[in-house]
Amino acid sequence: MQKLNLTITLETYNNDTELSVQENKLLNEARKATYKSYAPYSNFHVGAAILLDDDTIVMANNQENAAFPSGSCAEQSAIFWVGANYPERTIKSIAVIARPGKGDVFRGVSPCGACRQAMLEYEVRQKEPIRFIMLGANNQILVTESIGDLLPIKFTNF
Ligand code: THU
C-alpha cells in the first residue's frame, strides 16, 4: 500500500488593497450583494460576485425557501445567472462573502459541495481556470487559482 498526498495552494492577502483593483472591486460587489439576499430562515446573508472576461460583474445572493432544500446558495444563483445570460463569456473570478445577522459585520464562507460541483462544470466547460476568492480567519483573503482545487478527486462527465 502507498499513500498519495493531495495538496492545494492558496494565495493569501492581508487586506482588500493587496488584491488587484478588479478583484478588490469584485469582493466589494459580493459584500453589497449580501444586502439583497433573502435569508429569513438562517439570517446568514451570502453574496457572490462573478467577474467576466469583458469586465462585466454579475452579483447574486442566497435565496431561501420555507421548504429548505428549495433555496439557492449565492454561488449557484450567480453562476446560473451567468450561464443563462452570458453563455459565450469566460468567467475570470468568483468572490463570496457572508454577513450573519442584521449588522455590517462580514465573515468568510467556504462554498458547499453542491456549489463547488456546479462551479466546476463551468470551469471545465470554458477550459480556463476560475479564480475563487473568499475570506479566511482574521479577515485574511484566500484565493484559489481554480475551482478544481476546491474539489479534489472531482466528478466530471466530459
Ligand atoms: N450559503 C450560501 O449561499 N453559500 C455558501 O457558500 C454556504 C451557504 C447559504 C445557504 C443558506 O441560505 C444559508 O447560507 C445558511 O446555510
Q: How does this structure look, described?
A:
The protein is α+β, with helices and mostly antiparallel strands and 158 residues long. The protein has one domain (11-150): Cytidine Deaminase, domain 2 (3-Layer(aba) Sandwich), CATH 3.40.140.10. It has helices at residues 21-33, 74-85, 113-126; strands at residues 10-13, 44-52, 57-61, 91-100, 131-135, 141-144. It has a six-stranded mixed sheet, sandwiched between helices. It starts with 9 loop residues before the first strand and ends in a 14-residue tail after the last strand. The relative contact order is 0.19. Tetrahydrodeoxyuridine is lined by residues 39, 42, 44, 46, 62, 64, 71, 73-75, 96, 109, 111-112, 115.
List keywords for this structure.
158 residues; alpha+beta; Cytidine Deaminase, domain 2; 3 helices; binds tetrahydrodeoxyuridine; Cytidine deaminase; cytidine deaminase activity; hydrolase
